[in-house]
Structure formats: structure tokens, C-alpha cells
Design a protein that fits this description.
Blueprint lengths: L8 E5 L3 E2 L4 E8 L4 E13 L6 E7 L5 E4 L10 E4 L10 E10 L7 E8 L4 E7 L5 E6 L4 E4 L10 E8 L4 E8 L10 E6 L12 E2 L2 E2 L8 E2 L4 E9 L5 H9 L7 E6 L8 E4 L7 E4 L3 E4 L20 E4 L13 E4 L7 E9 L2 E9 L10 E5 L1 H6 L12 H6 L2 E2 L3 H8 L19 E3 L15 E2 L9 H14 L4 E4 H7 L1 H4 L4 E3 L6 E3 H12 L3 E4 L7 E5 L6 E3 L27 E2 L7 H5 L2 E5 L6 E4 L19 E2 L13 E4 L11 E7 L30 E7 L3 E5 L17 H14 L8
């Protein structure tokens, strides 16, 4: 690891895809340099496997090319609420702050629940957790003081907390009232003291779940709270416990009410609503988790839209990030004659570089080819900045039957939690990451980045770099193909697909929204033609935010292959109120869409396919034109074969079409391949790949209504075999046969 150069240039774009005539902006942070060179390059390959084609890019002359001044742009991670107006909510003769909280990291340093505070000047007043995890009132001014209960809270337990202060007497008091008590573990506690000087909160913003840190910038915050907050209240006088409790239950009553926020309102947005008399509404920063169970959740209703009053909590994390908010450094107005494809802004300074990928679309509302590569950007976002390589212990070694392979990107992710996490990671408090944004540097969405593990067949391209060989092959074959992303499919739906005769998927289109699924299903049912070149596709349901660009949500529900599991009762998306989890568990099995569905996964070596008798059926004659081989794909840069990593099989019981032809099936998978939980009704020693006949990749063809058809490989590794031996191989020949026939206008007759 010591031989790896430290990565000091990173960036991101404000858009993922852009059409001719539109503008895209690139935001760059560069350390230890006064300037950098920027160029636009067209990407063809990023497969750095020893048998791969390497990094292939072509510089495109655009007005954006040139030298630029460099600067360091900070990331201010951590979620919180800021109140919109500049009113001093604590300026009266006294105040009371109270809320229900569910702390997840009590004892992990000071954490602000709510109030006004500037850490650089130690000024203000806040209800907080002290370093031990006890409830405290922190007062700052000429002389600072902290009043604490002295009794640390338990993690992941609801507790009603509060603090009051009276300026005349200087008396400050705090309390904590757990919703549940345990014998011998009393956590009910109070504290009080007289302050020597009243706190000064003038000119300070009122925040929930963080404190301001103006010395580091106007957007900087500190003392982030980890956990849930529900029903926060502010009163303008010192209240005793009984009156404060009344404020909780009757937030709009009484002259002393300053603010009473109801987090159960406007759940799908980034606003919080004050139901008190003064309208102190607020704004969420960095997307804390919403539609979270509140202190009053009974378990009788699991859908937050049916009982929103029981989902009045927001879960804050000190490592949440949505939009880094960097300034633009390089802008590009896409030339009208720039062909649709995959490009990158290449940023270079000395021996440092970064490439920020983006897609150039065809002109809006038009197609420039009959085929469309639907780049699985939702899956790229799901894996964005995955931290698997940084996980300690031998997990990955056992997982992949190999060693970890750390890159400069992996090391930087380990050092920079502010870069955010993937939907496969957990936050610092152990809760699952349910939102992922592209408005930040995504270090594993770069050409040349490999997977984080090294199996017996070596490291291999993954996600974006596993898809680029398809672009390389199409270019070599001279086959025209437009490119669009999942975001266009989500936004445009059927209108996008109707412009094309053929759609090609990537190697791992795992994450699909309802709009995407609806559009693809409808298009296939009216004669569309899909070439599914991957495995474990169409597996998880995600939601795009209707108003906030560049972010998706995932709730990992009750089944499927999961690195974390959502809390019971928190399976419904906050963005749109729809149920999360697997599409298969929602009556939309992958098999009905693509003919095959997830059978299992293994991350050591890939295998090959053996043709079946059905491959000789006249309906499939075009598939094997010029191919006499019985074995298909016993080579490749993804695990050494065309069938592997994650594999899908035909299953009539799950909806695979009865008229589909199984043209070939994989064989010889190792005992590190295992089925997903949804495939295991009862565990046994016979479920691994070396003994389980159901753990295989099936190559399938079937006709669809309206003269359309579907061809599926059922393997993530397939695309990694296209470029083998200078494109002269049976995987490339077979794929070309299928695409050329699918491009012909002649309908596929019903069998």
C-alpha cells in the first residue's frame, strides 16, 4: 500500500447526462498545485486486467480544454436542520428546549440536539449530549457552563429530554425520562445549576442535530448528533417538567410557544414544518433519513403514509452527504455535432489526475441510432464510494476466496468519510445508508477502477469498467448505439424507449425505480427488443427524489442479499411512500421481464456455458450463426470466464416465459458460490455452486408480443469476454449475431 500515490485531485459534475447544446459544469478540488489541465475525452475502455484492453480514451477538442487555477474545496458532511429565518429563538427572558430522542452513539463526544451555538467562539445555548452521553444544557457567553444530568443514556432507546433556563435567576435545569426502564439500570435523571452569566445567542442560527462552525465557513457545522429526533419544541420561558410535557402533547397551546416542529409533515421533501404560532419552518441539510418510526410507533401500521403521526422522527448522521455544493471550475457547452457516447472531463496536474465521467445524449427527443445502451447509473449510484475494501478483518478474503486489492481511491475513501458512503455501507452509528447521491466525488465511478478484491483469477473490472468493454466492442464492430442513463429512463419513461428498436443493458442493472420498471415492461409488451447482458438485474426497488436531483433511496426489506437490513416498520421509501425491497417480493419477478432471475453469486472465478439441445432450434439459428463450439465463453477478464460473479437462471415457477429457449447453461461453479436468501427455504450443505444444480447462468431467448424479443445471458461476467483475443471469440460473435438480428425490422414470429 505504501507504493500507491496519494490521490489529491477529485471532482464531480452537476449532471450525469447532457444533450447537445446543453451545459455541464465540473467541480474540482486539487491539493498541492496552483493549476490543472482539463480536457474532454471520449471513453472506450477502462479494463486494466492484464488481458484487458486497458484505458482507451480519445481527446475531443472543445472550448473547455485548457489550463485552470486550482483550489481546495471542502466537504461539510453531517445532516442537520437549519431554521429559515434569522430570528433569535432563545432571546426571551428564558427558554425551554425539549424533544424525544433515540440516540445511536451516546458517549461518542459532545452532540447537539438543538439550539444556537458557534463552536469557534463557544457562544450560545443548546440542549445536547455531553461527552459521557448524558443530557446537558450547554451555555456559552462571557463564561461558559454545562449543566448535565450526569447519567449516560442507553443507545437506541427512546427518551424524553429537556432543558430550561431563566435569565433572572440564572437557573439552568435538564432532565431525561426514558420511555422504558430496566431493573438496576436507572436512567431517569435531572440536573440543575445557576449560571454565572446569561448565554449570548444573538446573530446565531438555530440548528437541530448540529452546531455552527463559522470559523471554517458559513456552511460548516460540528458537534453532530447521531440518532433520531422526534417532536422538538421551544418555549420562551422556563418550564417545569409537567408544563414541558404539556407542550409536547399540545404544541399549539399557550403564549410561551416559540416553535413546535412536526417532522411527520412534508415527509417527502427537505422541509420541516413548525405547527406553532410563529411559522419557524426549517430546511434539512445533507438528507437525514425520513419516514422513521417515532417515539409513539405502535407496530400496528408499517406504512408511514397510513399513519404519518407515528413516523415523526428524523434520523441524523454525522456522515450524511447530499450535495457538496462546490463551485464550478470547468464548464462545457456540448457541441451540436458531438456524438452520443460516454465521455469524461480529464483533470491533470503533474502526476495527479482524475476523470469525471458523463454521458452525451442524442439531441433531446431524438434518436441517432436504432439501438440504445441504457447505462445502469442507478446501480453505479448504489455502489458509489463503497467501502468494502476498507473493512477490517478477513471478511473480503473469505467472501472472494482471495485477497483485498486496495487502490488509491480505496485509501482515500478510508481517510475521508466526508465523501459519503454507498448503499452497501453503514453509517458511523451502524445504521444502513439508505440514500446515495452523485453530487459528490464518486471515486469508484472512474475508468480503470477495479473491484476491491483479488480472487484466484485476479482482480477484475466492476460496474462502470465492466460495462465499458461493450462500448469498445460496439465501436470495433461499427455498430451505432446511443447512450442514455437510468435517470433519463426514470424521467422520460416509455417516450425514451419508443425511439429505439433495441435496448442493451449493462453487466449489472440491479437497481430499478417503479417508473423505470413500468417503462421497460410496457415497451417489451409492445414489441421492444432487449438484450440483457448482465446478472442480478432488476433486483432492488429504488426511488428517485421528485424534486432533488441526483439522489436515490433504497430500503433493504425482508429478503434478498443485504449488507444491512432496514429497521422493522421502515421499509417504505420516504421519497415517494412506496414499499422498498426486492421487486420479486412485489409481484414483479426478474424472470418475467428478462426470462432469467438471480440464482446466486460467487466472487472467485467465473465459468463458461455449455450449449443445450435447444440451441439447435430453428428459432435460435441466428444466435449461433458461424459458431460450432459446444462451449461458450471459457475466457474473459471478469473471473476468467463469461459466466460468473452473479448469475441468473430460468425458473418457470417465478415467471420465466413457458416458450423461452434455454440455449446454454453454465457449469463448474466453485463452492464459494451461494444462492441468495430468497432461494433458500431451508439451509443444507448442498446449496453451494459445486453441488447445487440451480446455481447457474442460463442463456435464454424468447419472443415478446408485437414481434419483439428478449435475449439474456444471465451473467455479470459476459461483457468482460467481448474484447478477448482482439474481439475474435465466440462471445463477441454470438453477441453480434443477436444484435444484428434484433436491429432488423422484420418481426420475430410467435413460436
Amino acid at each position: 500500500m505504501s507504493g500507491l500515490p496519494e490521490k489529491k485531485i477529485i471532482g464531480y459534475a452537476d449532471r450525469l447526462a447532457v444533450a447537445p447544446g446543453e451545459t455541464i459544469a465540473f467541480k474540482v478540488s486539487a491539493e498541492d498545485t496552483e493549476g490543472f489541465r482539463a480536457d474532454i475525452v471520449r471513453l472506450l475502455s477502462g479494463d486494466l486486467h492484464p488481458d484487458g484492453r486497458g484505458l482507451i480514451e480519445h481527446v475531443v477538442e472543445t472550448p473547455a480544454s485548457g489550463d485552470y487555477p486550482a483550489r481546495v474545496q471542502p466537504i461539510h458532511a453531517g445532516s442537520y436542520v437549519v431554521i429559515d429565518d434569522d430570528a433569535d429563538l432563545l432571546a426571551s427572558e428564558g427558554f425551554t428546549l425539549c424533544a424525544w430522542i433515540w440516540p445511536t452513539l451516546p458517549g461518542d463526544g459532545e452532540q447537539v440536539i438543538m439550539g444556537s451555538w458557534d463552536v469557534g467562539k463557544d457562544r450560545g445555548a443548546v440542549l445536547a449530549l455531553d461527552e459521557s452521553g448524558a443530557v446537558a444544557l450547554k451555555l456559552g457567553g462571557a463564561e461558559g457552563q454545562t449543566v448535565s444530568t450526569g447519567v449516560p443514556l442507553l443507545a437506541r432507546e427512546w427518551v424524553w429530554v429537556g432543558a430550561s433556563f431563566d435569565r433572572d435567576s440564572g437557573r439552568g435545569s435538564v432532565w431525561q425520562r426514558p420511555a422504558k426502564e430496566y431493573p438496576g439500570m436507572a436512567r431517569r435523571a435531572d440536573g440543575s445549576a445557576e449560571a454565572t452569566n446569561p448565554p449570548d445567542t444573538s446573530g446565531l442560527s438555530f440548528l437541530l442535530a448540529a452546531a455552527g462552525d463559522e470559523a471554517r465557513g458559513s456552511q460548516a457545522t460540528a458537534l453532530h448528533y447521531n440518532g433520531k429526533i422526534d417532536a422538538p419544541r421551544v418555549a420562551s420561558v422556563e418550564l417545569d417538567e409537567a408544563d414541558a410535557l404539556h407542550l409536547q402533547s399540545e404544541p399549539g397551546q399557550g403564549d410561551s410557544v416559540v416553535a413546535a416542529w412536526d417532522f411527520a409533515l412534508a415527509t417527502t421533501g427537505d422541509r420541516i414544518v413548525d405547527i406553532g404560532p410563529n411559522g419557524h419552518d426549517g430546511r434539512l441539510v445533507n438528507l437525514p433519513a425520513r419516514a422513521m418510526k417515532g417515539h409513539n410507533w405502535t407496530g400496528a401500521v408499517l406504512d408511514w403514509t397510513k399513519a404519518p403521526d407515528q413516523y415523526g422522527a428524523i434520523h441524523f448522521h454525522d456522515d450524511d452527504i447530499y450535495d457538496c455544493g462546490w463551485q464550478d471550475d470547468v464548464t462545457l457547452q456540448v457541441p451540436d455535432d458531438l456524438a452520443s457516447g460516454i465521455y469524461a472531463a480529464r483533470i491533470m496536474a503533474g502526476d495527479q489526475d482524475d476523470r469525471i465521467p458523463f454521458v452525451v445524449l442524442p439531441p433531446r427527443g431524438k434518436a441517432t441510432a436504432d439501438a440504445l445502451f441504457l447505462m445502469p447509473s442507478a446501480s453505479y449510484m448504489a455502489y458509489a464510494n463503497e467501502h468494502s475494501a476498507a473493512q477490517g478483518g478477513g471478511y473480503l478474503q473469505a467472501f472472494s476466496n482471495g485477497l483485498n486489492g486496495l487502490s488509491a481511491q480505496d485509501l482515500l475513501l478510508d481517510q475521508r468519510p466526508d465523501l459519503g458512503y454507498s448503499l452497501y455501507d453503514v453509517h458511523s452509528d451502524g445504521s444502513g445508508v439508505c440514500y446515495s447521491s452523485r453530487l459528490r466525488p464518486v471515486l469508484n465511478f472512474r475508468p480503470g477502477v477495479t473491484n476491491a478484491w483479488v480472487g484466484p483469477a485476479g482482480t477484475y473490472p466492476w460496474q462502470f469498467n465492466a460495462d465499458l468493454p461493450l462500448i469498445d466492442w460496439l465501436n470495433h464492430e461499427g455498430l451505432a448505439c446511443d447512450v442514455a442513463t437510468d435517470e433519463e429512463l426514470n424521467d422520460e419513461g416509455l417516450d425514451l424507449l419508443n425511439r429505439y428498436r433495441v435496448v442493451l443493458t449493462g453487466s449489472h442493472p440491479e437497481y430499478y425505480s417503479l417508473a423505470m420498471h413500468d417503462a421497460l415492461s410496457a415497451w417489451l409488451n409492445q414489441g421492444g427488443r432487449m438484450i440483457y447482458l448482465g446478472g442480478n438485474g432488476f433486483y432492488w426497488r429504488v426511488a428517485y427524489h421528485p424534486d432533488m436531483p441526483g439522489v436515490i433511496e433504497l430500503r433493504r426489506g425482508e429478503d434478498g442479499i443485504r449488507d444491512w437490513v432496514a429497521e422493522g416498520g421502515e421499509y417504505y421509501h420516504s421519497f415517494d411512500g412506496t414499499y422498498g425491497g426486492m421487486w420479486e417480493r412485489q409481484g414483479r419477478p426478474i424472470h418475467a421481464l428478462a426470462g432469467v432471475g438471480m440464482a446466486g453469486q460467487g466472487f472467485d472465478v467465473s465459468s463458461c456455458y455449455r450449449r443445450t439441445d435447444a440451441s439447435n432450434d430453428p428459432r435460435a439459428a441466428f444466435v449461433f450463426d458461424g459458431i460450432d463450439d459446444a462451449i461458450i465463453g471459457d475466457f474473459g477478464t471478469v473471473g476468467g470466464g463469461a459466466a460468473g460473479i452473479e448469475v441468473d437462471r430460468y425458473d418457470r415457477g417465478k415467471g420465466s416465459p413457458p416458450h423461452a429457449l434455454i440455449l446454454a447453461s453454465s457449469e463448474g461453479h466453485s463452492d464459494t458460490y451461494y444462492p441468495g436468501p430468497e432461494e433458500i427455504d431451508n439451509a443444507s450443505p448442498l446449496i453451494d455452486g459445486s453441488q447445487n444444480a440451480n446455481l447457474r447462468a442460463d442463456m435464454v431467448f424468447f419472443e415478446t408480443p408485437g414481434g419483439g424479443a428478449v435475449f439474456s445471458t444471465g451473467s455479470i461476467a459476459w461483457i468482460g469476454s467481448l474484447t478477448w483475443n482482439g474481439f475474435d471469440n465466440n462471445v463477441a460473435r454470438l453477441t453480434g449475431n443477436v444484435l444484428r438480428r434484433f436491429l432488423k425490422p422484420e418481426p420475430f414470429p410467435a413460436p
